[in-house]
Amino acid sequence: MAKRAFLSVWDKTGIEEFAKELVGLGFELLSTGGTQRALEAAGIPVTNVSDITGFPECLDGRVKTLHPKIHAGILAMRSNEKHMEQLRELGVETIDVVAVNLYPFKQTIMKEGVTLAEAIENIDIGGPTMLRAASKNWQDVTVVVDSADYPRVIAEMKEGGVSQKTKFALATKVFETTAAYDSLIAAYLREQGGDEMFPEKLTLTFEKVQSMRYGENPHQAACFYKEALPVPGSLAMAEQLNGKELSYNNINDTNGALDTLREYDEITVVGAKHANPCGVASADTVCEAYKRAYEADPVSIFGGIVAANATIDADTAREMVKIFLEIVVAPDYTEEALEILRTKKNLRVLKLPTIKAKVENAFDMKKVLGGMLVQEYNTKLLNDDYKVVTKRQPTEKEIEDMIFTWKIVKHTKSNGIAIGKDKCSLGIGPGQVNRIWAANAAIERSGEKVKGAVLASDAFFPFSDCVEAAAKAGITAIIQPGGSIRDEESIKLADEKGIAMIFTGIRHFKH
Ligand SMILES: NC(=O)c1ncn([C@@H]2O[C@H](COP(=O)(O)O)[C@@H](O)[C@H]2O)c1NC=O
């Protein structure tokens, strides 16, 4: 019996060469309309699927290959005498190679103004059916869903036949591909339906971006995957202009720096370490903002991440190269700035034109052993009805500094306390197991400048000890969520010390 290969591809990349090689190896080719036309135009002989099925392609291509003569030919187990006998009785011939790639559903939904009907029409039915059938029968059928695998398949055929190992790998790839394809469809339809935020079955599609040398630690293997449709402004959309490959920690830490940066509309620079902000400052120029953020904590920024929301110019770049930084990320760079940054060959320079990300429809997820925590992104900053709870009202300047510092503490690991003044961070106390230690760390790190500064706390004060410490240090205003059963003690102490205090009514735990 002649060996037969079924080729039905949307993306015709490499199909001509692959088909020619198959013909050279003695295969008879079967195909659907568009693929057939492409091959015939290249002078390659092809049999149309309708000549096999005796049934025309119909319903605008919705039904082409969905026929027992095709699927029995793919699914029959060659080692099963009964199967083979049935094929003979039914007049069905086996199909030994299936090369199929699918309708471009992802590209379709990415198009501006795409309609639901257009998206639905781009859900491939016959393609996945053939691919899945061929993969189920992987021992007898070579299935190719990725044109990058054509050369490898041909090479092995020339060596005497495609190995079982390769066939199994190709079949596995098919199920990864069809599962990702379907989960993207499910996500899109869910978004169109719009009412159920958390579906019964959460299926996600991620695509491999890069393998990494290692993970959080050198003994952990790791890899970075991006969402099939990453949110604009996310790190997955960044272009790397210089430096070594991004590491696992680089990506996590830069993500944290960007989270903080997105809170600010004015020119701002965020220095970050282990995903916590360590120096944050706003200014009229990016250079000034960088210098202030650096000076806010010249110790921690060493080997850290710097994220800016304005174009990096030569002056800023000159400042940046004075110390060892892991990453600089910004919307753009002047030519000269880039030249200066490139003098540090290991410095990873990332260009991210959109810093503000639209995360309203995206999930924030955290993997735990055996499960996944899924929540909305923390897009809120303050409640509109935040209130002053002390006798003394804060000055306008204090309010400005409190909002500035509140944005920092929102993105500081809990328990977190941040102290700021004049649109610049002073001391940041992240990730403590109790609040007073975080307050003490932030106060100590602020040094002399703490006098007249403001303090922000990501969650309420369980006791009045933080107010006590703040007053002793010379802090004049405090912003915190409120909500403790001992709030009155904190308010009373603040009143005694002349501190103005705002309750935001909203908490910003971050773990
Ligand atoms: N309807 C079917 O029976 C069917 N069989 C194969 N396809 C797809 O049709 C495409 C190729 O079509 P053409 O050769 O006509 O360009 C491939 O992406 C293939 O996955 C089908 N299309 C959609 O379901």
Automatic annotation (TrEMBL):
Keywords: Hydrolase, Multifunctional enzyme, Purine biosynthesis, Transferase. GO terms for biological process: 'de novo' IMP biosynthetic process. Its EC number is 2.1.2.3, 3.5.4.10. Pfam families: AICARFT_IMPCHas, MGS. InterPro entries: AICAR_Tfase_dup_dom_sf, Cytidine_deaminase-like, MGS-like_dom, MGS-like_dom_sf, PurH-like. Pathway: Purine metabolism; IMP biosynthesis via de novo pathway; 5-formamido-1-(5-phospho-D-ribosyl)imidazole-4-carboxamide from 5-amino-1-(5-phospho-D-ribosyl)imidazole-4-carboxamide (10-formyl THF route): step 1/1; Purine metabolism; IMP biosynthesis via de novo pathway; IMP from 5-formamido-1-(5-phospho-D-ribosyl)imidazole-4-carboxamide: step 1/1. It catalyses: IMP + H2O = 5-formamido-1-(5-phospho-D-ribosyl)imidazole-4-carboxamide; (6R)-10-formyltetrahydrofolate + 5-amino-1-(5-phospho-beta-D-ribosyl)imidazole-4-carboxamide = 5-formamido-1-(5-phospho-D-ribosyl)imidazole-4-carboxamide + (6S)-5,6,7,8-tetrahydrofolate. The keyword Transferase applies. Belongs to the PurH family. SUPFAM superfamilies: Cytidine deaminase-like (SSF53927), Methylglyoxal synthase-like (SSF52335). One of its GO terms (cellular component) is cytosol. Residues 1-145 form the MGS-like domain. The IMP cyclohydrolase activity resides in the N-terminal region. This is Bifunctional purine biosynthesis protein PurH. One of its GO terms (molecular function) is phosphoribosylaminoimidazolecarboxamide formyltransferase activity. It comes from the Bacteria.
